[in-house]
Design brief:
- By secondary structure, this protein is α+β, with helices and mostly antiparallel strands.
- The protein is built from five helices and six strands.
- The protein has helices at residues 2-24, 30-33, 54-65, 94-102, 161-188; strands at residues 36-39, 49-52, 77-81, 106-110, 116-122, 142-151.
- A hairpin with a 5-residue loop joins strand 4 and strand 5.
- Helix 1 (2-24) runs antiparallel to helix 5.
- The radius of gyration is 27 Å and the shape is elongated.
Length: 190
């Protein structure tokens, strides 16, 4: 009976936490909107745990506890698309980044004015002025910034995960216990 009531409240917390992602982040991926998981209570262990899944916790923890944006691997920079394709959520996929980096006309490095990013070399047309070599001067290739690397920054938004969970337990806990008692009584007298 107690485990059933606890699990009911835990799943209410999970649904509320997942629904809140849309209000915290602009157009979050479904992966982010399903960030929570529930470890169910049992008769032997009447305790349910609502937590972030490990993959999502890596980048969502700073939004709960503070700190800098989490980036993949040892990277200390955020990737900001400038002229690169993004998905419907405004983000670049890992495959898109890999394709950009593997192209012969792109490179990762520092470009003009010390901007770090993924750059594309654009071949210019030959310039028709007389030069030293065969009468045609070759123009230098132009660079186009596709993705800018910016240093990680402090996170200012907050999930409010813990506060929301406590509020739901306080409001819904009594009703969940009463509902579980009613179920037990209804089945006991059949």
């Amino acid at each position: 009976m107690a485990a059933t009531a606890i699990n009911d409240v835990a799943f209410q917390v999970q649904r509320a936490e997942n629904a809140a992602m849309g209000g915290i982040f602009h157009n979050p991926r479904p992966f982010t909107q399903r960030a929570t998981q529930v470890e169910k209570a049992t008769k032997g262990n009447p305790q349910a745990v609502v937590s972030l899944r490990p993959d999502q916790a890596r980048y969502l923890d700073p939004y709960e506890d503070g700190g800098e944006h989490a980036t993949a691997g040892n990277n200390t920079s955020l990737l900001v698309p400038v002229d690169a394709k993004t998905d419907q959520y405004g983000q670049m996929t890992k495959g898109a980044i890999a394709r950009l980096v593997s192209r012969a006309d792109t490179f990762v490095g520092v470009g003009p004015k010390g901007v770090m990013g993924i750059w594309q070399r654009i071949k210019p047309a030959s310039v028709g002025r007389k030069g030293k070599r065969n009468g045609i001067r070759q123009a230098r290739p132009a660079l186009k910034l596709l993705v800018r690397f910016v240093p990680n920054q402090q996170v200012h938004k907050r999930l409010g995960f813990k506060e929301r969970a406590v509020r739901i337990v306080q409001v819904e806990g009594g009703a969940a216990i009463a509902k579980a008692v009613q179920r037990v009584l209804a089945t006991a007298f059949r």
